[in-house]
Structure to design on (552 residues):
């Protein structure tokens, strides 16, 4: 029994290392969402005019929605290569708990897609003249909201695992589910911008994130079993 | 109350009647769609039964004819 | 012998496709007739007999379709959620069919709710749309219905699609209250105006009975529409079985 438990940690580490190595071999794919977010953010001043006051007012929301859309773009690929080479089916019948292994895959996906987006988000915010004092709150809101989106998205990607076309369908399913996350993340940034207390929306996001970290991998495992009919 | 008065809906006819029109059009479409689908399902099923029947008789005739 | 021993038996029997097909075939015309009769009486009461509202004039008469549709949009989601749960836990084919065939009807009622609400809002609040918690939840509900329908049709294997979409429906049930809560919170942040259907006026009895009767009519309509859809779906799902072939040949002769 203890031997089995001891073997879980190396298995998790191996899964994480494998996914990160695979992602590193396709570095170009990691850069894509970042470029996408940069270009979308660049379009806003051209579409709305260069007035600082207007850009400053919408900056927080624009960065959040842009990051969300960039993540959505990359979400489709979360399990696709594993489905193609059959390693996902292997994972389903492996002795290790499926939920834990999927949790590791979600973590790897978050590290390779969301983290680069968070890293460049101060640049995106600066392009829209967001005050420097608000940027830490924006980063905190993104650190809370992006894992939430990765976890929710993973459940939906698992559900569409057995289908061929899933890009637009994924957007249709995910966007209604992430309305609350967007509201609280943008609410925190807006509150900080107005000099109001911004902690409570962040706390709500944190509570939701804790729940999602526990429940989403299990839901993801159940969804995968349904979608692969295993 | 005259018909004219009823149709004008106290000046709100432009809002009340389209709302009722949407209600009825959507529900009638919802009621008709499965009817059409049912007819198609049964038609396809009958076609399949007919094809199987033909195959069956052909197979029977093959088995009864003596091979050269 | 307790009564609990025979209930699962008839439920089990009703769950078998040919028996439910016949049962739904008997119930459906009655449900449709009741829906048309109660609906006609309710509309006569609401459009002709009920007096105009002293604040809203005749525009309030949209309530007789708007509120029953809104109620049905949530009620049908509840039925779909329960059927989805049964379908996932016990893998009952009939529950899958009920869940998946409820989705288009629910989407239709949600769409009606949004459009009629918009048509009512324009003369009353001066705007077609406002980002109020109730309106936003209803819109999210429509997207959830469409997501369920889309996921169901994305699978080649229909039973597998039904189970995946059932799972999505259950996730959606958790989502709707969260959306409602978060939009309420958002409104306090942005100091948006909250909207009530009737300011402070109470509904009189002459307005209330057509509304309640219309709620009944939409329920009957749902039963009739659902049963027709379920019957069609059972025919195509079980098309290899003898009882379906029998029906196909009987209807060709008549």
């Amino acid at each position: 029994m203890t031997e089995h438990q001891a073997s879980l940690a190396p298995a998790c580490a191996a899964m994480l290392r494998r996914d990160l190595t695979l992602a590193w071999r396709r570095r170009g794919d990691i850069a894509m969402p970042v470029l996408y977010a940069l270009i979308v953010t660049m379009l806003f001043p051209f579409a709305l005019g260069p007035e600082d006051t207007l850009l400053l007012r919408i900056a927080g929301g624009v960065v959040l929605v842009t990051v969300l859309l960039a993540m959505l773009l990359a979400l489709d690929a979360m399990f696709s290569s594993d489905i193609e080479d059959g390693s996902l089916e292997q994972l389903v019948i492996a002795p290790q708990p499926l939920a834990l292994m999927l949790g590791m895959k979600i973590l790897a996906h978050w590290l390779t897609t969301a983290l680069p987006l968070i890293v460049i988000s101060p640049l995106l915010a600066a392009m829209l003249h967001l005050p420097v004092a608000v940027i830490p709150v924006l980063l905190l809101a993104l650190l809370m909201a992006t894992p939430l989106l990765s976890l929710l998205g993973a459940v939906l990607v698992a559900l569409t695992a057995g289908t061929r076309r899933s890009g637009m369908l994924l957007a249709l399913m995910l966007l209604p589910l992430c309305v609350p996350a967007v509201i609280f993340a943008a609410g925190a940034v807006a509150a900080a911008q107005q000099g109001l207390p911004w902690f409570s929306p962040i706390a709500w996001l944190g509570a939701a994130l804790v729940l999602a970290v526990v429940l989403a991998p299990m839901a993801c495992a159940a969804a995968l079993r349904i979608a692969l009919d295993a | 109350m005259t018909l004219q008065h009823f149709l004008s809906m106290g000046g709100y006819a432009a809002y009340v009647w389209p709302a009722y029109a949407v209600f009825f059009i959507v529900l009638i479409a919802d009621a008709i769609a499965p009817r059409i689908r049912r007819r198609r399902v049964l038609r396809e099923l009958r076609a399949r039964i007919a094809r199987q029947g033909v195959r069956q008789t052909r197979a029977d005739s093959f088995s009864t004819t003596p091979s050269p | 012998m307790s009564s609990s021993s025979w209930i699962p038996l008839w439920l089990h029997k009703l769950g078998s496709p040919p028996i439910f097909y016949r049962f739904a075939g008997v119930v459906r015309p009655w449900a449709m007739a009741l829906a048309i009769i109660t609906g006609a009486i309710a509309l006569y009461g609401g459009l002709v007999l009920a007096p105009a509202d002293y604040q809203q004039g005749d525009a309030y008469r949209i309530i007789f379709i708007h509120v029953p549709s809104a109620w049905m949009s949530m009620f049908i989601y509840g039925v779909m959620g329960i059927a989805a749960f049964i379908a996932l836990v016990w893998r009952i084919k009939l529950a899958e069919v009920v869940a998946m065939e409820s989705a288009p009807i629910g989407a239709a009622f949600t769409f009606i709710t949004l459009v009629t609400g918009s048509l009512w809002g324009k003369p009353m609040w001066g705007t077609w749309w406002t980002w109020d918690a109730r309106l936003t939840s209803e819109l999210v509900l429509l997207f959830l219905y469409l997501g369920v329908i889309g996921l169901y049709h994305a699978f080649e294997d229909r039973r597998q699609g039904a189970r995946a979409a059932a799972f999505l429906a259950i996730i959606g049930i958790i989502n709707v209250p969260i959306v409602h809560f978060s939009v309420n919170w958002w409104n306090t942040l942005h100091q948006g105006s909250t909207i009530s259907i009737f300011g402070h006026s109470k509904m009189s009895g002459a307005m209330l009975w057509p509304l309640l009767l219309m709620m009944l009519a939409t329920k009957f309509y749902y039963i009739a529409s659902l049963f027709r859809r379920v019957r069609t779906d059972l025919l195509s799902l079980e098309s290899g079985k003898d009882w379906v072939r029998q029906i196909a040949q009987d209807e060709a002769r008549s």
About this structure: DSSP finds eight helices and no strands in chain C.
